[in-house]
Amino acid sequence: MPINYNKLFSLLESRGYSSTYWLRQNGVHPATVNKLKKGERVNTDTISLLCHLLNCQPGDIMKYVEEGEI
């Protein structure tokens, strides 16, 4: 997928949160957590929730990557 969420997991780590546990405790469904980890599609409601919870902008938690880039 051309979107990855590595920035999200780095942000959570920098704030001292255990990513999977913290996400689930704050209303992110386990299947959605798995999608985020795999870089799969999530809906804008999820992005909005994450930005609200972390007081950040979408660009702080995700990045567009050209096909074939790592």
Largest sheet: 2 strands, antiparallel
Radius of gyration of CA atoms, rounded to a whole number? 11 Å
* Rounded average pLDDT: 91
Strand segment count: 2
Helix percentage = 40-55%
Any idea what the shape is? globular
| H and E string | EHHHHE
Strand order within the widest beta sheet: 1-2
User: In whole angstroms, how far apart are the ends?
Assistant: 10 Å
**Low-confidence parts, pLDDT < 50 over ≥5 residues?**
none
As a percent range, the share of strand residues is: 5-15%
Q: By helix and strand content, what is the structural category?
A: mainly alpha
Structure characterization notes:
The chain starts with a strand and ends in a 6-residue tail after the last strand. It has a two-stranded antiparallel ribbon with strand order 1-2. It is 51% helix and 6% strand. The longest helix has 11 residues, at 44-54. It contains four helices and two strands. The protein is mostly helical and 70 residues long. The protein has helices spanning 6-14, 19-25, 30-38, 44-54, and strands at residues 3-4, 63-64.
